[in-house]
Amino acid sequence: MFGFFNGYHAKLKWIFAIITFFLLFFDGALFANMAGILTRGQYHIMPMLLVIWFVYAVLFELDLDLPIYFWACLAGLIFDIFYFGVIGGFTVGLPIMVWVSKQLRYYLSDSVVSLFMIIILSITVLQIFTYIAALIAGLDVGNAADYVVHTFAPSLALNVVIAIILYLPIRQLFRKLKEI
Fold first, then answer.
1. Angle between helices 68-79 and 89-107 (to 10 degrees)
2. What residue spans of the chain are helical by DSSP H?
3. Fewer CB within 10 Å: N-end or C-end of the chain?
4. Interatomic CA distance for residues 100 and 178, integer angstroms
5. Which DSSP letter does residue 40 get?
């Protein structure tokens, strides 16, 4: 299929695609099943496992072996159509977030602190982009201060904790897949 699944690191390409689509729908299922916890009062906390997956793919240099922008565009397109019914924020925002992660990788060291800083900045870029896209589309997302306090900050905190927990398992998975 378009040369994406054959040749060098073929298993890495297949497994990356399968996990990408699993996480795409798992994010939504997690949010739907934990809505009572994640949407208390005015707070709207969004788990972003797919975003963490893409950032780690860039940070562990899988973009050298994979068409990462293709997968980011496709995952963003499916995310937008499936969850919002409109092509928009994630279709463009996810590839931009991947690009930002890739650029930051060159400027920051390979330390764990730098990796988490890249995750924080990447999620921030995606959240800002989707907020602006929602404003342009005329969706009622409230003012910027409320968005930061009630959606952005809690979502960022949750996803940084998830990224810290998943750091070692994902690093080991990517190392094993690159060896195959």
1. 150
2. 10-33, 35-38, 49-59, 68-79, 89-107, 112-136, 144-147, 153-179
3. N
4. 23
5. -
Q: How many Å apart are CA 91 and CA 133, to the nearest integer?
A: 11
The dihedral formed by the CA atoms of 23, 28, 31 and 33, expressed in degrees to the nearest 10: -100
Model pTM score: 0.86
Neighbouring C-beta atoms of residue 94, cutoff 10 Å: 26
Q: Which two tokens stand for residue 69?
A: 């922008």
Overall residue count recorded for the chain in this entry: 180
pLDDT digits (tens, 9 = 90+) for 5-64: 555 566 778 888 899 999 988 888 888 788 777 777 788 788 889 999 999 988 888 777
- Residue 112: count other Cβ atoms within 10 Å of its Cβ: 11
List the structure tokens of 1: 């299929």
- In whole angstroms, how large is the CA radius of gyration of the chain? 16
Whose tokens are 């050298």? That residue is 64
Helix axes 10-33 and 68-79, enclosed angle (nearest 10): 30
What's the rounded Cα separation, in Å, for the pair 133 and 160? 23
The single-letter DSSP state of residue 63 is G
Give the whole-angstrom CA distance, residue 94 versus residue 62: 16
The CA-atom distances, in angstroms, between 6 and each of 9, 66, 70, 118 are 8, 11, 16, 31
